[in-house]
Amino acid sequence: MSTRPRPPLMPPIVRRLVRGLGMPLGSVLLAFVLGGLIVAATGGNPFSAYAALVCGGFGIGCTQGENPALQISNTIVFVIPLITAGVAVALPFRAGLFNIGAEGQLLAGSIACTAVGIKFSSLPAPILLPMVLISGMVAGALWAGVAGVLKATIGAHEVVTTIMMNYIAQWLLRYLIIGGPLQLAPGTSKSSPIGPGARLATILPNDNSLIILGLPSSVFRVHTGLFIALAAAAVFAFLLWRTSLGYEIRAVGQSQKAARYAGVSVRRTIIVTMLIAGAFSGLAGAIEIAGVDHNLTDKYFSDTTGFDAIAVALLGLGSAVGIVLAAILFGALHAGGAVMQADANISGNLVFVLQALILFSIAANFVGAIRQRIPGLGRPTALPPEMPPAAPLMTEAAAPPAEA
Amino acid sequence: MSALGDILHLLLTANLWQATLAAAVLLLLPALGGTISERSGVVNIAMEGMMLTGAFFGVAADLAWQNPWLATGVAMLAGALMASIHAFVSIQFRADQIVSGIAINIFAAGLTVFLINRIYGLQDVGHVGQSALLPNINVPGLDQIPFFGKVLFQQNVIVYVALVLLVLTHLVLFRTRLGLRIRAVGEHPQAADTAGINVFAIRYGAVFTSGLLSGLSGAFLAIGISNTFVPNMTDGRGYIALAAMIFGKWTPFGAFVACLIFGLGQAIYDNNSIIHVSPYLLSMLPYLLTLIVLAGLVGRSTPPAADGLPYVPGSE
Question: Helix, strand or coil for residue A99?
């Protein structure tokens, strides 16, 4: 009998890669398997459903004559606000704050962007475009700032306050465009369009006669907001790892007590973190108006971008690259949902089921639990240590953070 | 007449208060569920999803069997099954309870529409006939009392059930050994465990109960107040219930007072023909009021000490 330890099944470098990507990829895989079982259990064909989803999301393997380039363009349109709002959830995570108010902040941003874009509609683009984007950021920052100030001064839990602010924003939006000052005309539920100078250009020329990849180039809605979103992700990474504010945010997230001893003002950091997060969410809303819709419509009543952003931030493990990758996944799912509905007769709402399953899997670390039972992989690594789970916050919620 | 006079006139009608109580009960049931769950130390923001699930399965069962009582049972069970997922991942796997709660809400919203599509195709879900709805019951004799008879004794059967459950929840939480155990587990699970209380069992039971109550509320909404299921028909009521729970400082009667205030807002909203304020602005009130309470303007609202903390046996 040999007592030698068994050699590992995988070389170290592969093992490290698996550990880094294992949790998110495993969670997605698990969600798709469970989702497939739900489809099969209700008499559907999961393989044709997923094939249509992949076609709709990535333009690969389409059988019903979908244009791959158009599908990718549609996916990117979804990805743009998901990256920007994902950052708005991930940044407070680093400070130990759970911002589930990205949706309300996003709506506040889209409302402000629209109001300014209508009011100053005659201004030229070089002035008006920055104006509408900045006003969206300011509105989002104020919306999140309420939660930040309440948390920092009296310890009101930010999860509850941001939920309340979400609904206040939703009802404000309905008021404004149904009977309120932004309503286009009686009987409609939309605002007038923003001025031409307030719009983000599409990446391909908006020209019906120009044919690109078999379609007029004007149908490709992918717009220059993509670069703003990528810049937002870069700013997030720079802020977090290369500035003293980022250090303070991470310090507060690891231990408020330790941060306080290190001379960090916990209250100030909490408020500033929420303000910046709100600015990112507000920017996401402003980009949606300036880049896609050009006016507020009832489509925003059922918008879920701010909630999808929570899944994006968690699946992306709170890193900039991870957020972009996770946003691509969820953007593809949302774009693919429509095709799945049309081609495979499976409701596009399966996408929300998959999203929820991914969230369950990440939150419970099912992958870690499964991996524990597989030899050769060693002990599971949970979330990266610099990303604190939100649960311990609950105890600190009872007491306002004291200043040293 | 002046707007103030209009409001005063409206406040004196029995119809308004009858509607207020019904609207309050719709919120009270999930608020009681949330209170029980959080008293045991499990944060529950999933009442919205559990209500929605209950509403869907209640309608589906009622359409299949034409029996509102059976349908209500199915709705409660469906809500409790959703709650079990929340309990399983957050108690067993020590998942973040807020993430799990959000996931339940997204899951319920997606699954119900997905199932409509699988079961009913592109058609509407269909309408439940009058005879298969949860009935209104007039209490003989008492319903003839001027004003109060209409408000208190001409109500849907679920209203009476909910008021009994309100008193029962209060008594169980604060007057029984079980209630003491639930609160002990929510305040200091380590100490409770040392005292021989099964922390996991208490928490599972509490979360399961929150699902039963939310499912019951979903049934009341779908086959009592309404007669069909439409996607996202709870429209944030589960979150208003969450607000009521906090507003009521994690006590059953406190939550009931909050539900009455929010219910009054809903009833005024429904009678908006004489009050010239946008119904959408009125709808903001529950959330604004809760923010004001949270801001400490009406006394502090503090959750149970171990609310949201997974219990690890043997930990400090």
Answer: coil
Tokens standing for residue A150: 């309440």
Answer yes or no: CATH 1.10.150 is held by domain A12-397.
no
- In whole angstroms, give the CA distance from residue A253 to residue A174: 36
- Please state the domain extents for chain A: 12-397
Q: Is the ipTM of this complex over 0.90?
A: yes
Calpha distance A208→A217 (Å, rounded) = 6
Smallest CA–CA distance, residue A172 to chain B, in Å, is 7
A250 Cα to chain B: minimum distance (Å) = 19
For A36, A99, B192, the CA distances from A351, given in Å and listed in that order, are: 11, 23, 41
Residues 350-369 of A with CB under 8 A from B: 350-353, 355-357, 359-360, 362-366, 369
Structure tokens at A337: 């949902």
Annotation: CATH topology of B3-294: ABC transporter involved in vitamin B12 uptake, BtuC (1.10.3470)
Q: Is the separation of the CB atoms in A278 and A150 below 8 Å?
A: no
Tokens encoding B276:
């010239």
pLDDT in tens, chain A (404 residues): 445 555 555 666 666 666 667 888 999 999 999 999 999 999 899 999 999 999 999 999 888 888 999 999 999 999 999 999 999 999 999 999 999 999 999 999 999 999 999 999 999 999 999 999 999 999 999 999 999 999 999 888 899 899 999 999 999 999 999 989 999 999 899 999 999 999 999 998 888 888 888 888 888 999 999 999 999 999 999 999 999 999 999 999 999 999 999 899 999 999 999 999 999 999 999 999 999 999 999 999 999 999 999 999 999 988 999 999 999 999 999 999 999 998 998 999 999 999 999 999 998 888 888 877 766 554 444 444 334 344 333 333 333 444 43
The domain segmentation of chain B, as residue ranges, is 3-294
Q: Which amino acid is at A16?
A: R
Nearest to A271 by CA among A404, A401, A169: A401
Q: Do A17 and A298 contact (CB within 8 A), yes or no?
A: no
pTM of the model: 0.89
φ and ψ of A155, to 5 deg? 75, 15
Q: Does A254 touch chain B (CB under 8 A)?
A: no
Calpha distance A15→A17 (Å, rounded): 5
CA-to-CA dists, residue B287 to A161, A272, B254, angstroms: 9, 24, 16
